[in-house]
Amino acid sequence: MDLGFIESKTYDQISIGDVARTEHVLTREDGMAFASISGFHSVLQPEEITERTGGIPPTGPNMWCASLVSGLFSMQIPGPGCTLTNISLDFHHRLHVGDRILVRVEVTAKDDETKIISFDCEAKNAEGLSIFTGTARLLAPTTRMRWTTLPVPQLIVADPYRRYHELIARATKRSTVRTAIVWPCDQVSLGGAYRAFKDNLILPMLVGDESTIRSVAEQEQLDLSEIPIVHVAESRAAAARAVEMARKGEVQMLMKGALHTDELMSAVVSRDGGMRTGRRISHVFALDVPAYHKSLFVTDAAINIQPDLETKISILQNAIDMLNTLEIANPKVAILSAVESVNPAIPSTLDAAALCKMVDRGQITGATVDGPLAFDNAISSEAARIKKIHSLVSGDVDLLMVPNLEAGNILFKELQYLAGALAAGVVVGAKVPVVLTSRSDGELARMASCALGVLLAKDPV
To answer: What is the pTM of this model?
Structure first.
């Protein structure tokens, strides 16, 4: 290397016995980057699988290790302008995440007629165990080349599943929760409940049409011999029956199946036989946003359409209590609006100011709360600094409280579809948690929503 340039060695400048070396620690991010191109997904196993396999780290891709040889050729011997014509490697041992790999190539022969150079190649781990041995041949440049070494584009490996896996792992350490699965009459809802059962998250009770449930189970080859079915022939009646079971303490959680959300929530919020408490019922999304440094929660983007101040008090306290239960002590909360200044023409700014004063007076507890804040000021401490906003939550927010359902729905879907976020969600403020899943939710999002409910559910009396 020479002050921003790299020069190749020509065929004549290379001698038999010349050696080049490099070393690199295989990180999980390396494996994930390789997997995104090659499809080698073994390294993507979550940490809890490592625990189940006796502490053995995930297997790494051997061909990633082989790619280090290519780097030696292009950057050291011969350098820019060489052409790899043949490589043959024998792999002797597996790689694992965390292994330090030492790669060495040595010139063994030169062909003056073809200008082809032969190399021996080897890789070992830090303990000296051979990963691979082999040979390579390449065509070296005959004239010296000098290339500008432009900065390599920064590769940011986003793992949108990591925090969900952590959430699920925490939930599996709790006692299994008796859960009414309301109308599990299609492949997705029954399959998700069955997986949660097999992963020791829940003890499901299937509430719905028995013949349909068994037909779906047969199609999907699911064994329901250990899972009770409460036969109810119609979806609205199934919702009412599940709510009754929760009210009587027969289950500690509800999980939405293949019925419409309003069918289930009508039974939950019913003043006659529902699951109301002293607070308004609300919803919280848990978002894993790749570009954000921790889990980001959003409330309420699913239940209360245009909440007034009294309703917002419940929405805020419900979400704070939920985060406290999830062991997020003193969460940082931003109450969102279009602007950061209190403006009588924008009612949500007045509500935000009132809520913050209620926090100051101890009427709302358990969190550090600031608002009104625009989205940029809440998420970015730099944006807040430029606008001369002094806030204890800017740039490190745990919870975003939106002014209404419309704004919340737009926000979380933007984060999903433009920022690659995964969304899990749960209804809070009722006698038991209610897991609401969307028809578009993938299996992992459904499992994460279930795990949220498990962590919030109370132990049976």
So the answer is: 0.73
Domain ranges of the chain: 5-148, 162-456
Q: Nearest 5 degrees, angle CA 316-CA 458-CA 313?
A: 15
Q: Is the peptide bond preceding residue 347 cis, with omega within 30 degrees of 0?
A: no
CA dist 144 and 78 (Å) reads: 10
- Give rounded-to-5 percent helix, strand, coil for the chain: 35, 25, 40
Give pLDDT, residue 410: 96
pLDDT tier at 157, thresholds 50, 70, 90: low
User: Under a CB-based contact definition with an 8 Å cutoff, are residues 325 and 458 in contact?
Assistant: no
CB 43 within 8 A of CB 58: yes
The per-residue b/e assignment along 197-228, b for 16 or more CB within 10 angstroms, e otherwise, is bebebbbbbbbbbeebbeebbeeeebebeebe
Low-confidence winner among 59-73, 110-124, 152-166 (lowest mean pLDDT): 152-166
| Dihedral over Cα of 405, 409, 412, 418: its sign | negative
Q: What ranges make up the beta strands (E) of 112-201? A: 116-125, 130-139, 146-148, 177-182
Name the residue type at position 13.
Q
Going by DSSP bridges, is the β-strand pair 116-125/130-139 parallel, antiparallel, or unpaired? Answer: antiparallel
Bridge partners, 124 (sequence order): 102, 130
Which backbone phi and psi does 322 adopt, to 5 degrees? Answer: -60, -45
- Quickly tell me which residue has 């940490």 as its tokens: 47
Determine contact, residues 41/35, Cβ cutoff 8 Å.
Answer: yes
Q: Which of 191, 179, 303, 168 has the alpha carbon at shortest distance from 258? A: 191
Q: What is the pLDDT of residues 337-349, one digit of tens each?
A: 999 999 999 999 9
CATH number belonging to domain 5-148: 3.10.129.10
Regarding the domain with residue range 162-456, which homologous superfamily does it belong to in the CATH classification? Isopropylmalate Dehydrogenase (3.40.718.10)
Cis geometry, peptide bond prior to residue 344 (ω within 30 degrees of 0): no
Q: Nearest-5° angle of CA 310, CA 315, CA 316?
A: 100
Contact 408, 402 (CB under 8 A): yes
Answer whether 202's CB lies under 8 Å from 179's CB: yes
Cβ neighbour number for residue 50 with a 10 Å cutoff: 15
What length is written for the chain?
Answer: 461
CA 131 – CA 61 distance, rounded (Å):
11
The stretch 381-405 carries a mean pLDDT of: 94
